[in-house]
Specification:
- The chain is an alpha/beta fold.
- The chain folds into three domains: 138 residues, Rossmann fold (3-Layer(aba) Sandwich), CATH 3.40.50.300; 59 residues, no CATH class; 31 residues, no CATH class.
- Helix content is 35%, strand content 23%.
- The protein has eight helices and ten strands.
- The chain has a six-stranded mixed beta sheet, sandwiched between helices.
- A hairpin with a 2-residue loop joins strand 1 and strand 2.
- The chain is globular, with a radius of gyration of 19 Å.
- The structure holds adenosine-5'-triphosphate.
- Adenosine-5'-triphosphate binds next to strand 2 and helix 1.
């Protein structure tokens, strides 16, 4: 279970998230949607513990991850796989070494590293790239290599920031299939995307607008004319968020 309790995040004076609340069950496949700058990446970066909330609390399982010390954070990160443009591949290391990195950081034995990296590369269809450099791969292959690195330590939670951006239809569809396969195997998946139409196996959608979680159209129709809740969003704001 992932729980955000009134979470705010500021970058300097800029409020990227403003009192965000949601709950997502273990094993869910969630799309984070919303306009550019809405706060999608910020949610993933908080869950990856790259950022710390300015206020509020975040639970993954039973533990709060909002204020972990260095050792606790290192331990937590073993259960999380992250892919996004802000985490680069090491261009002067082989594809094998790039995928092996998270295992080497935690001191896994060389025998385990050999078998797990090979399995991860095979899973993303890149077995033949062991000795190649990332620069020798296409954009779509580099993305799949990032995914192999994100899942090599068998994380319970996979966070993917714009995993299909700038890919042609075939490469995007391979990436989506991979994420869906991990989810089918029990992994909780969260994807920030502008390309929702590419995803089929979605259990939850969180639509963000200006740092807040917006009510879904279903929430709006259920709320009808009731006071409070969704009424706090102006019509203009909702129109902008839903592109109406
Ligand atoms: N490191 C940073 N320093 C300052 N402001 C930032 C930083 N990262 C994000 N922001 C700002 O925080 C807000 C939310 O950004 P975020 O990246 O979470 O949005 P997003 O929905 O993922 O956008 P996009 O779809 O363009 O990736 C934006 O206004 C952005 O400009």
């Amino acid at each position: 279970m992932i729980v955000f309790k009134n979470v705010s995040l500021k970058y300097g004076e800029h409020a990227a998230l403003k009192g965000v609340n949601f709950q997502l069950p273990k094993g869910s496949f969630t799309l984070l949607e919303g306009h550019s700058g809405a706060g999608k990446s910020s949610i993933l970066r908080l869950l990856a513990t790259f950022e710390t909330p300015s206020s509020g609390d975040i639970f993954v399982g039973k533990s709060s991850i909002a204020k972990l010390n260095r050792r606790e954070r290192a331990h937590y990160r073993r259960s999380v796989g992250y892919t996004g443009l802000d985490v680069q591949l090491l261009q002067n290391r082989t594809c094998f070494d790039n995928v092996a990195l998270p295992l080497r950081v935690v001191g896994q034995s060389e025998t385990d590293i050999q078998s797990r990296v090979k399995a991860a590369l095979a899973r993303v269809g890149l077995s033949h790239t062991d000795h190649m450099l990332p620069t020798e791969l296409s954009g779509g292959q580099q993305l799949r290599l990032q995914i192999a690195r994100a899942v090599v330590n068998r994380p319970a939670l996979v966070l993917a920031d714009e995993p299909t951006a700038q890919l042609d239809d075939e490469s995007a569809s391979r990436v989506v299939t991979l994420l869906e396969e991990f989810n089918r195997a029990g992994v909780t998946v969260m994807v920030a995307t502008h390309e929702s139409h590419r995803f089929n196996r979605v259990t939850h959608r969180l639509r963000l607008g200006d740092g807040q979680v917006l009510p879904t159209p279903a929430d709006l129709s259920q709320a009808g004319g009731r006071e409070g809740g969704v009424q706090e969003f102006s019509k203009d704001f909702l129109n902008k968020a839903y592109g109406a």
